[in-house]
């Protein structure tokens, strides 16, 4: 029924100049070496892996993306499971390592029902199971005989893990646990891969021994029959319904009616119940668990740059192709202007372009710190096993690094994911009307990304952790017990210089920009400390101050990491001087644009003067926009996001924006398979029988 | 296949205290007279109409909302057309007037394919057609024999109407027009009701007479056969595909291959082509068209309060039901705290609660101004027809009022729709994880609302109109040619007092808050004027300043309108003193929270001191949150949005949040009708044959 375009339509071209010509022109006007910059950002190995996987995945019909945005949830979920299956088959066939499997998942562009099995279920079994439990559960899970999920969040309990209601009661008589859901709000909820796919779950439940609550612990529970895939008796499980995004994932609910499981099903690497005595054995090293969360958050920071880069790539290319209005000061009959030439568009997009670089380098910095810390912990635990013993100084330094890393990861996770999520929506709007089409590629990506702002610690909740750490650090500095890390350093610097005042030269000296951000953090820290310790204000009344403090501190960390990256010898040797200068401009734009948006805090902390802020806004930022503008397209090209992954008519590398929008609307849109009966007095909605459609 | 909950599940209740108890408690702690406040906001007639329509609509199966978020686009569109048909049948059966029809559309909760027929198509025929054309087109359109749309935007041309490419060439030989689409980018695009429903279109095309372009004009063109509903020859038309929201609307594309239409098909009330001579006759009164756009924008302002109110109602009720963590300063074993008690939640939600009232009263003020202007124009045109003649003074005053109204509507449309759209997303996030579920009711509403930020003038583009008007006003004031309106007044006040300085008492005097906002507008206006006229800066380099200026001015207008409303005798006589005081608190919260967010501009304009801003943030706003908190639930109740319209588990009036989430997930979720085969080595995705499902 869909009528293919007649010849007179096929003969039509977009009004000139063509998108492909405009992008060619953009690329011609900049000398940025895209290949070198790509390698610096991603490494050569990464780029080769991407190329190799693309060649394998793109031809497979099961990975076709054309109907993703038109289908209902049932069919999307079925197709997504089929994609997950095929990926798993290919992983075995081509012997993919973990990086390859993850990258392949990225490229197909949607979460599948295997998502939480392949990540949290396997990781939890691996990290929290004993060797015996590895044999029993992990081996079969790795072979996808057990498909699992990680069931923590409940209908009435999200952030507050201690509030979980699901119970696991120890039965000394037969050495089992009874898993039970005492209320409706204790239903597990939001659990990825649980709704339709999983036959096992790691269930976080309050462990009770002799009626005494020992806190939440992980239990492996079978929930569906391995043959029929029907729920087991006394298990009520299903999918929680449609969502703002992530609709190819079967987030599920789960209730237990006194289900008995054997002793071995409590994951027992860290804490356990002694089978014979029924005694609770305390966790060996709680800081290890602490470490996993830090790793998860650091990863979110690292990914945030790439998440944002998808939106910025699409919007930048499209705004170079799209032309609208003449410049008001131009000659009367001049051509319409590229939208990217308007300052109002530049001031929205180019700081995001800078932010994606900033977040990327910051994420790398975080991962490096995390690795250092892991190495140090391994070293110190191996020395202590050797009974040579880590001295108390070493242990204290280790604990302090971990606390710093934990706070840093909390604050940066909140800032980075908020920046990326909100940045994507700014990109979408910068695309004007067409940004609203699913074919823009931004909306679906934004919807799927948004949960990141809430999970692994709600972005507002997390800021309390950062504030608590900064208050603690400030108390230590005041007491002369200085941790010797960067946080202590900036607090001390502030105390030392407070009387003299700051007067940083933010307009001309990059290092002074970093110092101004540090100054603001320190100022807000001591203000908050005064309120809490001096004026004894309630914690609740200070939550807004804490949120501001955490944001300020995290912005400092991003600015500092970005500065270190653009000043590093690694970057200098990888890039030509011109591109290196451009990286400095991106740093300055990110920093000064942030400074200008947060002007009130910078001013009232005395870090800069009102005059400096005005100059930053009206002169420095405007000049940086001019400097960066000609290189914008090459700077997004360097992120090397393949067209197939972008899945965007607007963001195509070749600039054939209008041709592609038209092709998809007329040839890939199932709505056009049907002829409607539009008259209200006719009951039927369709004029014709629905064809055996492409659906 | 969907297993209904077994008895042990049915017996489960949420952990206490129950949501219904918590909301009862909320309502008990406030004396706000919800009924009185509702009537003040909406009028008694409105509330009765809503009640009456609800009773009619809710029982009709066709309006069932339970599957809306699970279905694919084809089925959603079919169902939506069925809803549109039923509404139209009921409109005739019950003899609904325009208000009733609009309200019924609101209640069913989604745009239907009749949307643009019932609005823009009919309005355009009515306002721009001659009596002959009314006979020919409008009568049949009102009877839904002609289903139409308004085809202006093109694939390559959105905001810039002058850039449209579709041509209408006058053929003197046979007194017809030839409509043609010369390029791919000239395809009409985004046209609501066009994709599948319309058989006619009002097409905006460049009128050419003897090869000379006379600018864009409206033409009525038949596009589909009235019997078969198939496209006519040389017409290529279809739906443009899936979108971020608005998926129940068939936004369409449309191309013409030299289609001839008769002379009478050019809508000719304002300008026309003389049939005999082929001469172009100029528009009688271009300002009337100008008026329609102003009306459309004023309506967006008026609706923005209600749009936001949906999100705020949902989030406020849910945050009163949801409990998470103990207060950190509370006793160790105290119960979890209502989320609404946390300052970090209050500071996000309560300013939005204030904003929805602010926007509502501002919208009313706008509509009043619009009516005054319409009356004045009618009066002056009738006097001039009477040849008694309006004097030049009267005409000038009329033109000035219109210019002021135009600028005001542009700026407020941008501010109001941005505030409502972004506010909804803040509400969604304030609901934590469950905000992401479609059952929250916020996400779908947000997605459907977002185009409002782009259409009827992109919110960034519009700010240029405001700036241009303010620059013009400033030049007039400086030249002593004062328009005598409020804009001139605030500019003059600023000039008079500039040397003495401002020093407004924003913390204690409401009128001074308004004055401080006026001062900031005036300051930014003269700054911009200095850059443009004094320093001869390019228009492009000032776009960011203009955007800030427009935002500042529009915030002033909202603050002023809100202040006038809460100080009005109408409000005083309608409300008890306690509720009246609360309205003043809402005004103060909206104003001071805005002032604090825009602190840098208030400070650098000299409107307030840094000390005042700090106090506003740390003391005044915090105190206002405390004052308003106990009344929050009643203040949203007063908006009287029916549960059926909210379509939200989280925002239910009765607080049965968890019961409803669970019911929908387990009983209304088609995904649970299917059993999947989860094993990657089995090719099939389903274990069972899909049942003849509810879909």
From TrEMBL, chains A, B:
Pfam families, per database record: ACOX, ACOX_C_alpha1, Acyl-CoA_dh_M, Acyl-CoA_ox_N
Limits of the Acyl-CoA oxidase C-terminal domain: 512-682
Keyword rRNA-binding recorded: no
Record-annotated Acyl-CoA oxidase/dehydrogenase middle domain positions: 149-259
GO cellular component assignments: peroxisome
Domain Acyl-CoA oxidase C-alpha1, residue spans: 290-471
Domain Acyl-coenzyme A oxidase N-terminal residue range list: 33-147
Catalytic activities: a 2,3-saturated acyl-CoA + O2 = a (2E)-enoyl-CoA + H2O2
Example GO biological process: lipid homeostasis
Keywords from the UniProt entry: FAD, Fatty acid metabolism, Flavoprotein, Lipid metabolism, Oxidoreductase, Peroxisome
Binding annotation for FAD: 153, 192
InterPro entries xref list: ACOX_C_alpha1, Acyl-CoA_ox_N, Acyl-CoA_Oxase/DH_mid-dom, Acyl-CoA_Oxase/DH_mid-dom_sf, Acyl-CoA_oxidase, Acyl-CoA_oxidase_C, AcylCo_DH-like_C, AcylCoA_DH/ox_N_sf
Family (UniProt): Belongs to the acyl-CoA oxidase family.
Name by which UniProt lists this protein: Acyl-coenzyme A oxidase
Organism: Penicillium chermesinum
């Amino acid at each position: 029924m869909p009528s293919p375009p007649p010849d007179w339509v096929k003969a039509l071209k977009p009004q000139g100049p063509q998108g492909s010509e405009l992008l060619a022109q953009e690329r011609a006007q900049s000398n940025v070496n895209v290949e070198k910059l790509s390698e610096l950002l991603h490494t050569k190995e990464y780029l080769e892996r991407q190329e190799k996987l693309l060649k394998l995945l793109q031809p497979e019909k099961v990975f076709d993306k054309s109907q993703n945005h038109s289908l209902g949830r049932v069919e999307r979920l079925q197709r997504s499971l089929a994609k997950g299956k095929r990926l798993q088959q290919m992983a075995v066939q081509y012997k993919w390592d973990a990086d390859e499997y993850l990258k392949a998942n990225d490229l197909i562009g949607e979460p599948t029902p295997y998502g939480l099995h392949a990540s949290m279920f396997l990781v939890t079994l691996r990290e929290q199971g004993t060797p015996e439990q590895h044999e029993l559960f992990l081996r079969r899970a790795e072979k996808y005989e057990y498909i699992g999920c990680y069931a923590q969040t409940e209908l009435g309990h999200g952030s507050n893990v201690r509030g979980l209601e699901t119970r696991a009661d120890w039965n000394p008589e037969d050495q089992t646990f009874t898993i039970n859901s005492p209320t409706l709000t204790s239903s597990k909820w939001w659990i990825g891969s649980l709704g339709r796919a999983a036959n096992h779950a790691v269930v976080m439940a309050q462990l009770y021994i002799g009626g005494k609550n020992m806190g939440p612990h992980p239990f492996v529970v079978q929930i569906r029959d391995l043959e029929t895939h029907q729920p087991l008796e006394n298990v009520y499980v299903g999918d929680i319904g449609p969502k703002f995004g992530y609709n190819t994932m079967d987030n599920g609910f789960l209730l237990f009616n006194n289900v008995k499981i054997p002793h071995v099903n409590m994951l027992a690497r860290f804490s356990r119940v002694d089978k014979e005595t029924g005694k609770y054995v305390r966790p060996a090293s709680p800081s290890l668990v602490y470490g996993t969360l830090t790793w998860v958050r650091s990863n979110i920071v690292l990914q945030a740059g790439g998440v944002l880069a998808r939106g910025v790539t699409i919007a930048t290319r499209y705004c170079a192709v799209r032309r609208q209005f003449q410049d008001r000061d131009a000659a009367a009959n001049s051509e319409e202007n590229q939208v990217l030439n308007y300052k109002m568009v530049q001031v929205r997009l180019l700081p995001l372009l800078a932010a994606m670089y900033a977040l990327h380098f910051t994420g790398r910095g975080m991962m490096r710190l995390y690795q250092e810390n892991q190495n140090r912990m391994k070293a110190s635990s191996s020395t202590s096993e050797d009974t040579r013993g880590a001295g108390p100084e070493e242990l204290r330094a280790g604990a302090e690094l971990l606390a710093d890393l934990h706070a840093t990861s909390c604050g940066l996770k909140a800032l980075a994911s908020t920046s990326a999520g909100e940045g994507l929506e700014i990109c979408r709007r910068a695309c004007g009307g067409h940004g609203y089409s699913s074919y823009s590629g931004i909306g679906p990506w934004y919807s799927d990304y948004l949960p990141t702002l809430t999970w692994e610690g709600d972005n507002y909740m997390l800021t309390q952790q950062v504030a608590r750490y900064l208050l603690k650090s400030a108390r230590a500095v005041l007491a002369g017990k200085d941790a010797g890390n960067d946080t202590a350093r900036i607090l001390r610097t502030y105390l030392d210089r407070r009387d003299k005042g700051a007067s940083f030269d933010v307009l001309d000296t990059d290092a002074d920009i970093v110092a101004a951000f540090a100054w603001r953090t320190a100022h807000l820290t001591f203000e908050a400390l005064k309120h809490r310790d001096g004026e004894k204000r309630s914690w609740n009344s200070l939550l807004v101050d804490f949120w501001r403090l955490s944001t300020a501190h995290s912005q400092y960390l991003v600015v500092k990491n970005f500065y270190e990256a653009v000043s590093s010898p690694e970057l200098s040797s990888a890039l030509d001087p011109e591109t290196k200068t451009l990286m400095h401009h991106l740093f300055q734009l990110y920093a000064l644009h942030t400074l200008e948006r947060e002007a009130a805090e910078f001013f009232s902390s005395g870090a800069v003067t009102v005059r400096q802020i005005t100059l930053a806004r009206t002169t420095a930022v405007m000049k940086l926009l001019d400097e960066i503008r000609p290189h914008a397209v090459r700077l997004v090209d360097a992120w090397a996001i393949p067209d197939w992954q972008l899945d965007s008519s607007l963001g195509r590398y070749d600039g054939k924006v209008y041709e592609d929008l038209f092709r998809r609307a007329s040839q890939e849109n199932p709505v056009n398979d049907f002829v409607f009966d539009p008259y209200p007095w006719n009951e039927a909605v369709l004029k014709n029988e629905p064809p055996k459609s492409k659906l």
